[in-house]
Amino acid sequence: MTNHAAFAAEDAVTAVAAPAQPGRHFASFPPRRARDCRKAALGRMDLSTSGVLMAGSLLETMKASSPRHAMSAVGADHEEWIENHPSALEWFEGVLAAAEGKQIVMFLDYDGTLSPIVKDPDSAVMTEEMRDAVRGVAQHFPTAIVSGRCRDKVFNFVKLEELYYAGSHGMDIKGPTKVSNHKAKADEILCQPATEFLPVIQEVYKTLTAKMKSIHGAMVENNKFCLSVHFRNVEEDKWDTLAREVRAVLDGYKELCLTKGRKVLEIRPSIKWDKGNALEFLLESLGYEGRSDVFPIYIGDDRTDEDAFKVLRNIGQGIGILVTKSPKETSASYSLREPAEVKEFLRKLVKSNGTKKD
Ligand SMILES: [Mg+2]
Description:
By secondary structure, the protein is of the alpha/beta class. The protein has helices at 3-7, 37-40, 58-64, 67-70, 78-84, 92-99, 128-140, 151-158, 198-212, 239-250, 275-285, 306-315, 339-357, and strands at residues 103-108, 143-146, 164-167, 172-174, 190-191, 219-222, 227-230, 256-261, 264-269, 294-300, 319-323, 334-336. The strands form two sheets. The chain has an eight-stranded mixed sheet with strand order 5-4-3-2-1-10-11-12, with helices on both faces. A four-stranded antiparallel sheet has the order 6-7-9-8, with helices on one face.
C-alpha cells in the first residue's frame, strides 16, 4: 500500500494539496460566460484525475477506506496536517479577514457535514439545531446544498425552501422555491446535464438491486442520476464478492463509471460533471462569475467534495473546509472535525455578519 492510500482514514482522496495558506484565497479570476450545463457536460471524464476506479483497484480502495486499515498511518502526521489545514473554528478570525468586504456564498455537503454518517442512509436526519444554523446562514448569504443524494431526498432531510439544491453529485440543480433575501433569479435555475442517462441508470438500479440481495448488509440507493452501493453494513470478507458483482454489472455499460465515497461505491454517467461543476454553475447563475468580491465557502467531508475544493483552489478564491477527524489528502484549506463543529462555524459566521451590520 502506498503512503497515499494509507493516509486516508475514511475514504481515499486522490488530490494532492499544496500547503494551505489560511486567509490568502481571494485573488480575482477571469470572467466567464454562463454556460448551458448540458453542453458543458458533453465532454467525458478525464479518467486520470476524476477519481474513477480503474480495473483491479476496487477492493484495495474499499479496504483503504476502512479506519481499521488506515489508522496506523495517521498518528505522527496529524500535527503537520493540522498545521496545513487549520481548524476553521480556531482560525475563525482569519477566515473572516479573508472574506472581509466580499459576498460570501455558502456551499454545504449533506451526509457527514450537516448530518452524522449513520448505518442506515435513510436515517441520516439533521438536528433542529443544525437546521436553524443553516436557515440563519441562508438569511445572510446565498446557500446551496450539494449532495450525492437525489435532490428530492436531500430536500426532505433539510426542508428549507430558501436554499439552492444540487443533488446527484451536482447533476440535478434547482434554485429556491421560496423567495430569499438574494436577488438572483433563483426559480429559473435548473440544471440537469445527465437526463439522457436516466433510462440506463434505472436499468442498472434494477439489476444491481437484484444482485446485491445475496450480499448481507449491501444496499443500493437510487439517487436518480447516479446510484450508490452502500457497503458500510457488509462484513469485510464479502467486500471482494460485492466489488466483483458491481464490476460485472457495469462491464455492460461503458457510458457509466464507478467512483468511491465513504463506505459507498457510486455509479455515475461518464460525463464531465461533478460537484465542482455544480459550484461553478451556481456561481455563474447567481451572477458572481468574474467578480473578485465574491467569497465562496465549500464545506464537505467526502472524496466527491474534492472536485469543488479543487475549483476554489484553481480560481484562487474562497475556501474549502474538509470535515474529518483524521488527516486526509485534500485540496481543502481548512478543516472541521464533525457536523457539530460545522454547526458552530455556521453560527459564528451569522453572528459576526449580524454584528458587522449593526
Ligand atoms: Mg458527505
